[in-house]
Amino acid sequence: MLYLKELKKVMCSFFYILFAGALAVALYSQGALYFGDSRMNRPEPGGNYGVVNREIPEMIMPAALESLWQEFCENNYKTYPIGFIKNVRLDEKKQRMVAEIIAEITGEDTEAILGKQAAFEGTGDDGYSFNIGEELQMDSDGNLIFSGARDGSEEEGKDTGEEGLTIAVRDDMEYGKFAEAMQRVDDILGGGSDYCAEHLKSYGTVEVTYEEAVQRHELAVSRDRITGGYARLFSDYAVAMVMSLLPVFPAVILCLKDRRARMAELIYTREVSAARLTVVRYFALVTAAMLPVLLLSYVSNASVWGLYSGERLDYLAPLKYDLGWIMPGVMMATAVGMFLTELTGTPIAVAVQGFWWLIDINMGFRSVESGYALFRLAPRHNAGEKSFFRTQDYVDNFQRLVANRLLFAGLSAVLIIATILIYERKRRGSLDGGSKIKRALSVLGNRKNKLEG
What we know:
two-stranded antiparallel sheet
């Protein structure tokens, strides 16, 4: 049977052993293979149940303004455009633009704001203060915690000295207008700051109440049947760490191996159709990549079964998340590997997939707790051990996750169809992408030599 032959060809290779080993090491390094010390206990009254970000305008606006004012005075803005921190310093024109936005938010004069910033640069003293108020408190981690309703009086701020400059949100400032103004700041900075609409919510941190903690625990027990939360965290690590990248290697190696063994002539002239050969090879590669994932996911999940003796557990949770969450990423990486290798006859797919994976991981690192964007290669749902309790967040974003995974499954199907067409054209002798690329590189090399000569 062709499928079994292709599967055996993949799994009996030395690189496949390295692939499975790399998967196990990556998951072990993140603690995703053993959750035996992470039991979900029912909350007790009077405990600390953590904090959560919520869109509370009366908290977000003063906290975000305080952050912006400090960075404006220092002319040192922190951004994360592709995941890595980037400190941005603005020129005079753009600093004025930010000053105008601050003036719009506070009602102060733009020139006074610029003057205060210039004085700060000269003395190192910001010369301003904020009246946080009784409802805004600082926790042990330095987060501002909102603990009650506000009447707006605390937002008046304090006089900052002889100039009478008050840094506080105007009483008549609507949250929608404030968010638009902050988005303009993010645009000036080039994106990736805490002032964009997506991250503005991070300034709203509230304590989780006992009632909310109990409800969260009961939902994890009833909806996830406990094991679902562990399977979800395993899947997050698996697809982000390796399974949206490593499957490209077996696909590239298998295709190049046939080429080096001069199997191309046999493949392109044999009786089996191009569609059948491509599809069978594709499913063999996907199957081979998923087998160690399935095994390790059950090793991981089984580590907690003994902690919940007598509870109603979902023993199919690892399988469901493997197929629904991880496999579309495997399908995409495999399809990229087959398509680009057959098109070019080179291992360029490794570089392409690696670059895509690196950008995706770094651009989405700030949304690790809830990263379900449509074009995310590796969706994220990771808040450490708190992930087991975040069933409601998962339910709220389930449709977005489904859309994301279906999109990548569909894109992989498109690439496989394109690969079939490439096979057909090669059989007819009308396409030799590898030779064309080599000729192009040769021409560039000759031109370079002539120029140097």
